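Check this:
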Amino acid sequence: MQTVEELELKLSEPSERLIRDVGRIKGDIMILGLGGKMGPSLAKLLKRALDKSGTTKKVMGASRFSNESMYNELSNFGIDCYKVDLLNDGALKGLPDAENVIYMAGNKFGTAGNEHFTWAMNAYLPGRVAEKYKRSNIVVFSTGNIYPFMTIDSGGATEKVRPLPIGEYAQSCLGRERVFEHFSVKNGTKMLLYRLNYALDLRYGVLLEIAKKVVSEKPIDLSMGHVNVIWQGDANEYAIRSLLHCESPANKLNITGPETISVQWLAEQFGEHLGKNPIFENRPAKTALLNNASRSFDLFGDPLVTLNEMIMMTVEWIKSGGEEIGKPTHFQERKGDF
């Protein structure tokens, strides 16, 4: 895989299990925060799945759409797109109703020094959205950052682990969850809190960041010595299918890959395939931000793209000089300063 076109085609290719499940979803779907890293490919995946299922449900999406070409691309794909600032209450209220909402809006990067905007996006806006779409099923994108660090041999935090967020970004994400939970109880709105880490495609993500450091012979920090990852296409599929598992009070679901992965091992794999000797600094801590997604596998089945496939696709992407988005995950961060 060497081109964006090939990558987008793979990300938006629906599985038979997704096609089956979208046929069971009742009503139109609105995606709020459509213009982020995952939103465009999720919308295309959903539209293709609906078309293959033979249903005529609408796919709608709202975003600022600072990238005009993205607005045009998605509109031409058959997505009903709305250019709005979701923090503008009038604009939010003016959006069409929908039986189903996938909420992807939020702020992470640049939190330090801009904390007020992060809290407005991550904790104030959810209340406005919950009131606007009180009669909808809502899948709320959240993060595994709300959990405490877990020991390497723990298998990661399950949904039963009490949140203990580190830093203002993670605290604001727990705020997002709590506000949505409040309105789920108050209004009886069916919701699912979708706790994700770390999704990737070939233009961004943990694997690309590690591989690039191997190629450039820059030191790789091992202090956050273990990670979880999941292919963005699988994460998007799970998000869509989660619309069938919304509950009141809000359901909670961890989403990531099945492995607890050593960062050093990943770097060594890339070194072998790219002809470089990785350089390391610091020693792995006994804890890391780790997520246990076994419950999601019981609901949806295992991810379709394996870790080895992700590694090999990343190698090919780097060798071919593939495009990059330029939004680092900061997966090494242990103090919560994003």
In short: The CA atoms of residues 231 and 240 lie 15 Å apart. Residues 167-187 form the longest helix (21 residues).
